Each structure stands twice: as C-alpha cells, then as structure tokens.
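Folding follows sequence. Below is one example:
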Amino acid sequence: QVQLVESGGGLVQPGGSLRVSCTASGFTFSIYAMTWVRQAPGKGLEWVSTIASGDSTYYADSVKGRFTISRDNAKNTLYLQMNNLKPEDTALYYCGRGGLSAIDYWGQGTQVTVSS
C-alpha cells in the first residue's frame, strides 16, 4: 500500500535552516510528481512546492528563493530544504503524491516551528 512518511521537523530560530524529508513506499516513486503543502495554526492548506517526475520544480511566491525541493529516486525520498526561515513558515508540513491538482495520497505531516 502507498505510504508517505515525513520527518525532520522541529524548532528553529528565525533565519535558520531545516530540511524535512518524505520517504515513500508502495509505489514507483520516480514516475510521480510530488508536492509539499503546509497548514499553519488556524489556517487552511497552503501549497508550497511541487517537483515533477522530470525534476522540474515549482514554488509558491512566499517561499521562492528560500526553499528548495528535491528528490532522490534511488532512496524513494522527497526533500524540502528550508533556509532563512520566518515565523510565518510555522506549520505542519505534508507531502503528497501527485501535482497540486491531483494529490491522491498524503503523509501524516511533520511540524516546523520557527520561533526565538
């Protein structure tokens, strides 16, 4: 069965960096686009970034230039490198299988808290 497991979240100071990961199993990871979305406390889901199967990448304006999405198909793992973190980046970060309009499976999320 399809499983997506996020990890790597934590508490970081403003201006700091963090890398979250999403390990996939149960499907052929390399042929799917993968997406990161986040949900801040009391707010709805916000699209963060997508990486296509061909490695094209797409970012929300709010994270462009600070976040980098990547994938390691040999390890069935999706990454989100987050630099220059801001308090408004505090959220539960989820990975999803598929592009933004076609996500069919989600992970359980990993919490990222940006605070001094």
